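Q: For a teaching handout, I want to show students what a protein-ligand complex looks like in C-alpha cell form. Below are the inputs, and the small molecule is adenosine-5'-diphosphate. Please produce the holo structure.
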Amino acid sequence: MSQNATMNESVKNATTTPLLQAQDVRKSFGATEVISGIDLEVNQGETVVILGPSGSGKSTFLRCINLLEDLNGGRVLVDGADVGFEVRNGRLHELAENKIAQRRADIGMVFQQFNLFAHMTVLQNIIEAPVGVKREPRQEAIAHAKELLARVDLNGREGAYPRELSGGQQQRVAIARALAMRPKLMLFDEPTSALDPELVGEVLATMRSLASEGLTMVVVTHEISFAREAADRVVFMDGGVVIEEGPPEQVLGDPREDRTRSFLSRFL
Ligand code: ADP
Ligand code: MG
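A: Here is the structure, written as C-alpha cells, with adenosine-5'-diphosphate included.
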C-alpha cells in the first residue's frame, strides 16, 4: 500500500512538481505569530535568495522548511513528499519522528555558525553522517568527500583539523559536510555573517559555483551582490510574510513595495 503510494508520487514528480512547496506556513512562539502564512515554491535547480530585516522571520521560516520547528499551520513538501505528514488510507497522518528524520535528510542546512566537530579531521566531519546515519560504505563516503572538497576548493585538506583552517575554509567544509548527505535541497542561513569581511568572498564564490552547477538552494543573506548575480529569484520578507518576490533585477532594481525599497536603501 505505502509502496504504491510512493510509486504514484514518483510518477507524478517526474513531470513538473516544484522541488520545494511551502504552503501557507505558519509559526507562533507563544501568542506571537512570527510566520504568518508563507507560500514558496522552488523548482529543481533554482537558487532563491531571501532578504529581509533582522527579526522578520527568515531563520524561523528556514527552520520550518526542514521541520526543525513544529508548524502551527500549512505544509512543506520536498520532491512531492510531505516533510511532516503522510497519506494513509486516504487520511493525513503525522509522521513518526524517525520518518521525519528520513525526509529531513533530503534537506541540507548551512548555518551562520558552522559548528564543525573540533576533535575530528575535515574528512571525519564530512563522512560522519553518511557513514553513521545513512550507512553508506566507508570507502564510498571517503571518495565522495574528496570530490566534495574539490568542489568547495579545499582539495587535499581532508587531514586538517578545524582549528587549522580559516573561518571561510571551515564554512566551506560545513557546506561539503551538508552536501555529503546528497540532499535534494540546500538551505543557507546567513552563511557569511560570522566571517571576517576578507573571507566572505571565497564562501560566496563556492556558493555561486554550486548554484551554477544546478544545486537547488534557498539562501538567506544580506549579500545583495550575491543575490543580484546568483539568484534566479529574490524574495523579500518582513513581519513574517512575503512582501514581494521576483527576478533579482526587478526586486533589487525596481522594487514594487515601499518596504522593499526602504530596506534596500540601507545597502547603498
Ligand atoms: P530573522 O532570521 O529574520 O532575523 P528570526 O526568524 O530569527 O528572524 O525571528 C523572527 C521572530 O521570532 C523574532 O521576533 C524572534 O525574536 C522570534 N523568535 C525566533 N525564535 C524564537 C524562539 N525560539 N522563541 C521565541 N521567539 C522566537
Ligand atoms: Mg536569522
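A: Two things your students might notice: Residues 29, 34, 52, 54-60 surround adenosine-5'-diphosphate (ligand 1) (CB under 6 Å). Residues 117-182 form one domain.
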